[in-house]
Specification:
The protein has about 160 residues and is mainly alpha-helical. Helix content is about 70%, strand content about 0%. The radius of gyration is 22 Å and the shape is elongated.
Length: about 160
């Protein structure tokens, strides 16, 4: 038996590394490609392996986006931040779980987050506190109208 060629070795290395990574959690195609490049695997081998895994249904940007968005929503992040993070990971579509939510539902989530972090006290006269809470909600990825709605809520 002869020694396997470098091409076969690269292919095996790419397939096994990609499968191990996907077994841990969902990845976007771009994330997986970057991680395989870090392992010094040729780009053409990576693309061929990822194309094959997409065809098999093992790799899906749509599934990754949905899982990622749901996790971030559960952690209290808003739509703007979640969509920006997805774009950084190479996903440029809006997951269904975000697309189906209304502004009112996002405002309700922002209110719940504000209540958990700061309480729902009256801050209409305390400009510094209002700005602090607004900055917090904006950093979490809520739109300005959602932040305003959350800041208007009282206990």
């Amino acid at each position: 038996m002869g020694k396997p060629s470098n091409q076969d070795d690269q292919d095996y290395k790419a397939r096994s590394a990609a499968l191990r990574l996907l077994a841990r959690r969902e990845h976007s195609r771009m994330e997986l490609s970057l991680k395989l490049r870090q392992r010094k695997i040729d780009t053409d081998v990576i693309e061929r392996v990822l194309d094959n895994y997409e065809a098999e249904g093992w790799l899906s940007d749509e599934r990754f986006a949905d899982v990622y968005a749901r996790q971030r929503m559960d952690l209290g992040y808003g739509p703007l931040r979640i969509l920006a993070e997805l774009q950084q990971r190479g996903v440029h579509t809006v997951p269904e779980c975000i697309g189906t939510m209304t502004d009112a539902q996002w405002a309700e989530r922002a209110t719940l987050l504000r209540e958990k972090r700061f309480g729902l006290g009256d801050i209409s006269e305390d400009w510094d506190e209002k700005v602090r809470q607004a900055r917090f909600l904006a950093r979490r990825g809520f739109a300005s109208d959602q932040v305003e709605s959350a800041l208007e809520q009282r206990s």
